[in-house]
Amino acid sequence: MSDDLERLLRWEAAGATWELIWPRAGEVTIVLCTCDSGEEVDRYTSAAADLLRYVRDPGRAER
Q1: Which of 29, 36, 24, 35 is CA-nearest to residue 4?
Q2: Who contacts 42 (Cβ-Cβ below 8 Å, separation ≥6)?
């Protein structure tokens, strides 16, 4: 498991939310938001294949 996917999964497990920004093909920017007001806390860009699969999975529950 990539560090980038692990980071997102830890964020979700803490009950916080996130959003996607797709700057270009093969790469994604994840915006980490607070669980209460949805304010941006941090963001990171990744091309990790497992993270891309995870965020693009249509079977994954809405975030």
Answers
A1: 29
A2: 31, 32
A 10 A CB-CB count for 30 gives: 21
Token pair of 9, please? 């999964």
Token pair listed for 51: 């993270």
pLDDT tens digit sequence for 10-59: 999 999 999 998 767 889 999 999 988 889 999 999 999 999 999 988 77
Edge-to-edge, what's the strand order for the sheet holding 40-46?
17-24, 27-33, 40-46
* pTM (predicted TM-score): 0.86
Residue 18 tokens read as 């996130």
Residue 21 CB-half CA count within 13 A: 11
And the tokens for 39? 């304010």
